[in-house]
Write a structure and sequence with these properties.
3 domains; alpha+beta; 10 helices; disordered C terminus; 6 strands; about 10% strand
């Protein structure tokens, strides 16, 4: 267990160590607080710090290390942010600070700022704002945001997979149309498709030949499209197909060579 801070004077119980992350009590300047609030999962409060004149002090980037400090005026982070900062500033410092912006202060643009910083920050957006049409800009920038919508409307899902086909894996209702959109954006999304058609598989391997490894019924046409685009897919192709492809390639090379000789 780490050092337990109390109101009033706090003194380091062990020798002060100017270097390293141990052997000191840490604090920061006012403008650096938003960079600190997500360092620990249980961070809930912010307090005012005064440093006694006789204290040992080392100043680092965005933090101060001391051997003693005086703690006062402890308040919840949400209240502290509201009193001292504009929401745009705290989100610029750390997108996960969205969880510390009071619900009545949040707007869809705050959600957009947070998602641009990190898509998973979207989970902290107040649910009163969770209507997908408000977050069209977020879905178009990062389809992963679809996982944080309480419902997954068809149009929202289409927008998400157009941005990132692999998002198909976290969508509950995978219609044939949605699956086709997903593999068109990223062929590897084929791994999340249960009911595969030849058209779907061809679209997938043409976008990314490595999608051949997820094809359930590997027809000649699908295998040929993948192999001729990228020979590295050979380990995933049926041996009988590979043998025929290699023979066909040799025959083609031979005919081309014969044609060149006749032209000379």
């Amino acid at each position: 267990m780490g050092f337990q801070y109390t109101l009033g004077l706090n003194v380091l119980p062990t020798p002060f160590e100017p270097e390293g992350e141990e052997g000191g009590l840490f604090a920061c300047l006012l403008n650096d607080v938003p960079y600190w609030t997500n360092l620990y999962d249980d961070c809930e409060f912010v307090g005012q710090i005064d440093i006694p004149q006789e204290a040992k002090v080392v100043t680092r980037h965005r933090k101060i290390k001391v051997d003693k400090l005086i703690l006062s005026n402890v308040v919840p982070i949400q209240i502290f942010f509201k009193q001292w900062f504009h929401p745009y500033y705290v989100l610029h410092c750390d997108p996960f600070n969205l969880r510390f912006i009071l619900p009545d202060e949040q707007t869809w643009y705050h959600g957009l700022m947070a998602v641009e910083g990190h898509p998973h920050a979207f989970q902290y957006l107040d649910q009163d704002h969770h209507h997908w049409t408000q977050y069209e800009p977020m879905l178009s920038r990062n389809g992963n945001c679809i996982q944080y919508l309480p419902t997954q409307p068809d149009e929202a899902c289409r927008m998400a997979v157009k941005q990132n086909g692999l998002v198909l894996g976290i969508i509950r209702n995978r219609s044939p149309e949605l699956c086709l959109l997903a593999v068109h954006q990223n062929g590897l999304a084929l791994q999340f498709v249960e009911n595969q058609t030849e058209e779907l598989c061809l679209t997938a391997v043409r976008q990314n030949p490595m999608a051949i490894q997820y094809v359930k019924d590997q027809t000649f046409a699908i295998a040929w499209d993948a192999w001729r685009k990228d020979k590295r897919v050979q380990p995933y192709i049926k041996p009988s197909h590979v043998t025929w492809f290699e023979r066909k390639s040799r025959d083609l090379s031979k005919r081309l060579l014969e044609g060149c000789i006749k032209m000379e």
